[in-house]
Each structure stands twice: as C-alpha cells, then as structure tokens.
Design brief:
By secondary structure, the protein is an alpha/beta fold. Helices cover 37% and strands 12% of the residues. It folds into 2 domains: 221 residues, no CATH class; 128 residues, Rossmann fold.
Length: 412
C-alpha cells in the first residue's frame, strides 16, 4: 500500500497477543479503524514505557525491499519522536515521576494520529473504510463495483446492517488528486486480510497489470524470511543438534478450537509415523513444536512417543533454553528495526532511541526459531489443520529457506 501510494512505511512493533481487539470480518463484527488506532497507540506507549518494544523489522528481514528501493521505511519510535516532538528519554522511562506535560503531550499526539478529532488538512488523513464496506484493489476491475461477498439477509436484519462491500482502487481513492494526497500522514486501521468465500476480506492486490514495479514488490513479499540471527540458529539446530533426517510435528493443542481436536491432530501424526516406520530404520527423529507443556504430555500420544525411545527420538526447545536466550540477546543488540537509512536527517533521533529505549525484557523468539527448524525437516511436516503458524512453515518450506546458505546480519 505504501509503495503504490509513494509513501513511507512506518514500521510498527509486534503487539502483545489480543492486546488490540480486531473482531471478525466474516461476521461483520469489527472494531472501527479509529478505535483500533487509539488502542494501538496506547499499547505501543505501554511497550515503550515497559521496555518491551520489539519492531516487526527486528524479526522479519525487509532489507531486500529497502535496498532495492521498492519501499521506504521509518521505525515507529523514530517517527513519533520527530512527529510528536517528544523527549524519548522520558517516554521510555519506567519511573513514576513522569511530568504531567509529557502525559498530556502523549495523549494529544495519540489523539491526532488516531483521527479522534477528524482529519487535519495538510497533516493527517485517517482512513475510516474497513472490511465491512471496502475491499482495496489496484488496477483490478471497476472502481466502486460490488464485491462478491456481502452480508446475508439474516445477518443484515439481526445486526441492522445497511451497508454493502465495494471494491475500491487504492490509488484512485487515496492517491494523486484525492483528499488524502495532501496529508503528510495517512493512517489506516487494521490491514489484516484473508481469503473468504471467493473474495478477500480487505485487500485484494495480487498483481498490477500496468505497474512492473509493484509486480516486483508483490513477488518479493510473497516470502520474507526471518532475520539472520533466527534463521542461522534454526539451521544450526537442525544440522548440529538433530544431525539426522527428521520429521517436524507442529501440534497446536490448547488455543481456541484446537483444544477440541486432539484426536484428529494426533491421527495425522500417527499415520505419518507408521509410514516412516515401514519405509526406513529406527529410531525416527522428530522435532516437536507444540503449545502443550512437556509436563502435560503424560497420557497423550506425545507421552507415548517420548516413552518409546527405541523407535522415536524427540527434540524440542523451550523459551529458557540457552540457545533461545542467546538468540534473543543477539536480536536485542542488532536492532535491525532502527537500521533504516531512508532519511539521513533522522540519525540523531535514531541515536536517542537507541540510547534511552533499550530492552529490559528480551524478545520472545522461540516461535520463529521453531518455524525455521521445521522448514528444515527432510522427512516431512505434520501440521495442525487451520493453524496460521502451519501455513507460515509451509511457505518457508516452499521457498527452500533451509537449503539457502547461512546469512550474515545485514547493515543498510
């Protein structure tokens, strides 16, 4: 979206799970963009104050996009320190003696960026279209036409819904000649999208027939790897700890509806292991990626596998394992998210953020390391049906992440 509109992407942090309520697009029960923006602002300030702020670019490697000039980017902390003219030393302070003036400044800047007071000419344009009314497109179909997915009559009556979903070209709506063009900041709500009933919930930009540059970007972002510190450890664990062909079992067992489908989840693993036992020698090496604590494996199929050491050798990682802790420390020191040099004049602001906003709590990187290890599983991958984590691993396997050489950390 930033590249199409020739804007700079403000790279935000990883939010705590469920910290910001999004709702459900298919059920047309969502938070408004304005509500999401103010919730995100409040939570980001909390992350800064508690020294737990981890940029998305600290985890996902976007260096290829920046070096190829397909996207310009700035870290959210740097943007806020400049835009709001805030003293980051005080913003990142966890002390109790925060000046009232700073609290008021934070509140005012958050209200402005969230669009609480509406749009401000030449300053802010707050996008209030969301997935209930809009599917964003680019060079695809007639601007303003109805989308194929609409709320059904029963839902419209029960929820008193009167609106319809239209497909709107993001360039025509928010680009040159639009009301949004003159505003320095363009603020969306959630940009989450997913396929649903033959349509996309919010963004349907799969190709750009007349824009080779955007097509190149679409191809690049189909797969964005984790940063080198994470990828390298995952590969090293596979080659130096497991040291043999292995199967990855991604078993999501506790969250949401997954806790009601243990039987089906374990059935797929059992069938795969039976076929491997018939085809080769024992023991079968298995990397287990699960949210079920090891202390609760007793009485489950996982517990049976752990007890059968003659036929199966299990490997797994915990968040307190030394390898995981060391990787988290390396990421905290690398600070990839602050290495953007799209704006030479921001280096003073970057230096202040680095000095005053250091992490007190190390980032949680276990999930990303586990996904990388699973991408290296040469005996196959058993997934939990419906898990987005499983989808991420399958993309990594599709693009051969594990077969690529170990990379060094980037410096832009």
């Amino acid at each position: 979206m930033a590249s199409i509109l020739n804007r700079t992407l403000i790279v935000s942090p990883i939010l705590d799970h469920h910290a910001v309520a999004l709702g459900s697009c298919p059920k047309f029960r969502v938070q408004s963009p304005k509500e999401i923006r103010i919730s995100v602002w409040d939570h980001i300030i909390e992350l800064l104050r508690s020294r737990r702020y981890v940029s998305m670019a600290d985890i996902i490697d976007i260096s290829s996009l920046l070096s190829s000039s397909l996207v310009r980017a700035i870290d959210f902390r740097v943007f806020v320190s400049l835009w709001c003219d805030l003293n980051v030393d005080l913003v990142c302070s966890n002390g109790l003696n925060v000046p009232p003036s700073l609290v008021e400044s934070l509140k005012q800047c958050g209200s402005l960026l969230s669009g609480i007071d509406g749009n401000i000419n030449q300053c802010l344009y707050a996008v209030d279209e969301d997935c209930r009314t809009t599917v964003w497109t680019y060079q695809n179909g007639v601007d303003g036409m109805l989308d194929s997915f609409q709320p059904d009559e029963q839902l419209m009556k029960r929820k008193k819904i009167s609106y319809v979903r239209r497909r709107r070209d993001v360039y025509k709506t928010l680009g040159p000649g639009s009301k949004a063009e003159s505003a320095t900041v363009l603020a969306f709500g959630s940009l989450f999208t997913a396929p649903y009933k033959g349509s996309e919930l919010y963004i349907d930009i799969q190709n750009a027939p007349a824009d080779p540059r955007i097509n190149a970007l679409i191809n690049k972002i189909e797969f964005l790897p984790f940063v080198p510190e994470i990828v390298n450890l995952g590969k090293q664990f596979a080659s130096q700890t497991i040291k043999a062909p292995f199967l990855c079992a991604q078993l999501r067992l506790l969250d949401g509806q997954f806790k009601n489908h243990w039987k089906a989840t374990f059935l797929g693993l059992r069938q795969k292991l039976d076929s491997l036992r018939q085809a080769g020698s024992q023991p079968i090496h298995i990397f287990v990626m699960t949210d079920l604590p090891q202390g609760n494996w007793t009485g489950s199929y996982l517990g049976d596998l752990a007890m059968d050491s003659a036929n199966f050798k299990l490997y797994f990682l915990g968040e307190n394992d030394l390898l995981v802790m060391n990787t988290a420390k390396k990421l905290a020191l690398a600070r990839h998210g602050l290495r953007f040099k799209s704006f030479p004049g921001t280096m003073d602001a970057v230096a202040k953020v680095e000095k005053h906003c250091s992490l007190d709590i190390l980032p949680d990187v276990l999930l990303y390391i586990e996904e990388t290890i699973c991408s290296c599983a040469s005996l196959g991958f058993v997934r939990t049906t419906g898990s987005t984590i499983a989808q991420s691993i399958e993309v990594m396997r599709k693009f051969g992440l594990c077969s690529s050489p170990i990379r060094t950390a980037f410096a832009l």
